[in-house]
Amino acid sequence: MAEKTCYYEVLRVDRSASKAEIDRAYRKLAIKYHPDSNRDDETAVEKFKEATEAYEVLSDQEKRERYDRHGHAGVEGVHQFNDVEDIFEAFGDLFGGGMFGDLFGSRGGGRSRRGRRGADLRCNVTLTLEEAASGTEKEISFRRRARCESCTGSGAAPGSQPVRCETCDGRGQVIQSAGILRVQTACPTCSGTGQKISTPCTDCRGSGLENQKAELTVNIPAGVDDGTRLRVQGEGEASPDGGPVGDCYVFINVKPHSLFKRDGSHLILQLPISYSQAALGAEIEVPTLEGPQSLTIEPGTQNGDVFTLRGQGIADPRTRSKGDLLVQVFIEVPKKLSNDQERLLRELAELDHESVLPHRTTFLEKLRNFFDPDTDPDES
Prior knowledge:
Strand content: 15-25%
Order of helices and strands: HHHHHHEHEEEEEEEEEEHEEEEHH
Structural class: alpha+beta
Strand order of the largest sheet: 10-11-15-14
Number of strands: 15
CATH architecture of the largest domain: Orthogonal Bundle
């Protein structure tokens, strides 16, 4: 019995090679020795099977460890590939979409075709902040391509049937040669369907699809934010060749609120208070999404201080826990004062030893002083 070649030598990699390096090495050898590229070379078929056997062991961590410790004896009994078709079955999808089918075409009739998936659609829904916070239902309408009712999606006029495409013999794929490689692509005549329509349906012009108006009721969960995307499965466009229907994606737009700003699950409210409320403290009512709530302003509150109302924010749609309402106060300075207000504030300024502008004499006061020079300006 001939001695087997070391698997690392077969794949031409070092013993410290990573899984990615082993994958790349096998891909290279598989393309080089593929039977479809070496139809008259029996040696290439044997090398192809030898490379695949080595790859099966070295790409599996457990088998590779046994092989590193005990050599070929440690992996006796693992699957041996006696036929190239077994290799296609085991590693046909190594390259994502099917290494051997994509590069060299099908063998023995090829794999069954799968219909293309229908296109996805996008719809926009605008909500108020209250609707986004509590959740709601919205009616949406849009146009989409659905299966033609006249021809039930076949594209052929009623009473007629599609015929097999002569270019690809109904396979939907053709093989093009590029040097030693043979590349499988969609048939240009039938666009990969494998069929030709001799008498097209007049309603859909042979496409099998027609434009229809769709109306849906979309359930908007509580807590959605601006830019949230909701997926409505199976409400997109129909497939042009019998594949699955696409989806409809609903994008949420939340309108700005006149009072509240949103920060995730928290709400921010900027609340004006007077100087006396900030200095002496007060009990005031503040708006929330669920109605007015009482808030205690502590004496000595400074401009920009933040008060928190727990649980008065917006629910997180993933955890269902509610955020808080953050009330940021700012001291509002009146632009006009009554005589009593000005007098009291001036008295306070004197007590605090603060320098303030003198009392401004109005035109009426100047007019009274003109006619009655003995009038005390403080009494006017």
